[in-house]
Write a structure and sequence with these properties.
80 residues; mainly alpha; two-stranded parallel ribbon; 3 helices; 2 strands; isomerase activity; Sugar phosphate isomerase/epimerase; isomerase; Xyl_isomerase-like_sf
């Protein structure tokens, strides 16, 4: 399943209702992959290539690590 935050940044900092999403995935016994898409403007040229409207609050490394931690925590909390 392809997932992303509403601003394509750090999960949990936008408008996605993550608990509702993970609750629904648990309810259907989802056991497939979760593929996260987000972008950091700290990478030269990234903002222009993916049409980011605002600079990212996080550099690429922090965004990757924080996103993975967030998604893992939600998956564990909902038994996925």
């Amino acid at each position: 399943m392809h997932i992303t935050e509403s601003n394509r940044g750090m999960p949990g900092e936008g408008n996605v209702r993550w608990d509702e999403l993970f609750e629904a995935l648990a309810k259907i016994n989802y056991d497939g992959a979760l593929v996260l898409e987000n972008f950091s403007s700290s990478i030269d040229g990234m903002a222009e290539r993916v049409n980011l409207w605002h600079p990212s609050k996080h550099n690429a490394q922090d965004l990757a690590e924080g996103s993975l931690a967030f998604i893992k925590q939600k998956a564990l909390a909902y038994g996925l």
